[in-house]
Every structure is written in structure tokens, then in C-alpha cells.
Amino acid sequence: GENVEQHPSTLSVQEGDSAVIKCTYSDSASNYFPWYKQELGKRPQLIIDIRSNVGEKKDQRIAVTLNKTAKHFSLHITETQPEDSAVYFCAAGENNAGNMLTFGGGTRLMVKP
Amino acid sequence: DAGVTQSPTHLIKTRGQQVTLRCSPKSGHDTVSWYQQALGQGPQFIFQYYEEEERQRGNFPDRFSGHQFPNYSSELNVNALLLGDSALYLCASSSGLAPYEQYFGPGTRLTVT
């Protein structure tokens, strides 16, 4: 089955700096890679996603890149703000497998004012 | 437009008991997936329901079972509860028209004592 590894497990940055979270996956059949943000005690929220036919996707301060050959994808947050502090999860899925998502272990991002 | 809802919010059960958790998908969605999230970890896929049938199942024992109703809502049942079943149980809904995107409910926090 699919295995997703996520690094780092914790990340502390100064407000205004950039943050990068990296994930690797094992199953070359995976073709969908979402990122979720989970604040303490709340539900995971889909913040951005990318499909395997695209190399990069941007949405305001957030961007995701995908390298299918190396089987890794990354989340980039620019101009970080204190409200970006949360746990971020990457995931990988394969539509042919009924959209089951395999999640990474999470990254706790702390943005210091 | 209501998002994904789950009930109850919290639940305390004793080892050996049985529990039923409920989920109503986002309006327009017909597919429901269930995930277990242990403290400090990423969600783990339990199973997915589509057209009232279990379409895919993760690595969980038969003690975990489910059901989907004609209105697309779903139930997760866990029999013979173990201490290790204590976790946040998340329901995610998606649409057959956009099968990749899964939206999570707020979860049910289950504590087994």
C-alpha cells in the first residue's frame, strides 16, 4: 500500500518568513495530492491540492510543487502570519482506488510574531 | 449550505461496549469516507461508502463496520471497544463529479475507559 512520509515534524518561523513542508510517497499510481490545515480541536481543512498532470499550483501565499519522478511534493507558504500556525498534513490518493487518502504524520508550524 | 456534520461531538464508552457514530455529508455529495485520527497523528482511512455499499476498506478489523443510507448519510459502528480505539473519528464527504476533493466534518472524540 501507499506510504507517505512528511518532514519536518515541527517548524518554527518568524512572522513574514517562508515555510516549506516536504512529503514523499511510495506508490507511483497515486495521482492526487492534497494539503490540509488542522487547527487545535478543529477539523482538517483542505487548503490546496495538486494532481499528477500538474507540476505546480499557487493560491495567494500558498503554493504546492510536485515531482512525480522523485515521488515528492512540497507545500510553500510565503509571508507567514501568526494565523498560519497549525498542524499541516499532506496526503496522497489514487482515484482508481476509490479516492482513499493516505496521510503523512503532520507538521506543526509555529509562526512567531 | 451546510457542510459535513457529525454526531455526537464527544463520547465516553467502556471497554467491550459498542458505539455508533453518525455523519451527514455536504450538500450535493454522495460519497462518505471514515478516518481514525489518534492523538498527534495523521488520519487513517477506515472505509468509504458509495451508493450504499462499502467501496474500499483500510487496514481495520471487522469490529469496524458501517452503513450508508439512501440520503447519503452514514454510520460507523465499532464493536467490542478496546482502549486503543480512543481517537478522533472523522467523516469526509466527496462528490462523484469531483471525486478527489474530500471535505471533513468536525469529528467525534471517542474515549474508551
Overview of the structural elements:
Chain A is an all-beta fold. Chain A is built from no helices and 11 strands. With 113 residues, chain B is mainly β. Chain B is 0% helix and 56% strand. In chain B, strands 2, 4, 5, 6, 9, 10 and 11 form a 7-stranded mixed beta sheet that branches. A 4-stranded antiparallel beta sheet of chain B has the order 1-3-8-7, with no helix packed on it. In chain B, a hairpin with a 6-residue loop joins strand 4 and strand 5. The radius of gyration of chain B is 13 Å and the shape is globular. The model of chain B has no long low-confidence stretch (mean pLDDT 94). The interface between A and B is medium-sized, with 27 and 28 residues.
Give the secondary structure arrangement, pairings included:
The complex is a heterodimer of chains A (113) and B (113).
Chain A: E1 4-7, E2 10-14, E3 19-25, E4 32-38, E5 45-51, E6 56-59, E7 62-67, E8 72-77, E9 86-93, E10 101-103, E11 107-112
Parallel strand pairs in A: 2-11
Antiparallel strand pairs in A: 1-3, 3-8, 4-5, 4-9, 6-7, 7-8, 9-10, 9-11
Chain B: E1 5-7, E2 10-13, E3 19-24, E4 31-37, E5 44-50, E6 53-57, E7 64-68, E8 74-78, E9 87-95, E10 98-104, E11 108-112
Parallel strand pairs in B: 2-11
Antiparallel strand pairs in B: 1-3, 3-8, 4-5, 4-9, 5-6, 7-8, 9-10, 9-11
Fill in the keyword field for this structure.
heterodimer; A: 113 residues; mainly beta; six-stranded mixed sheet; five-stranded antiparallel sheet; 0% helix; B: 113 residues; seven-stranded mixed sheet
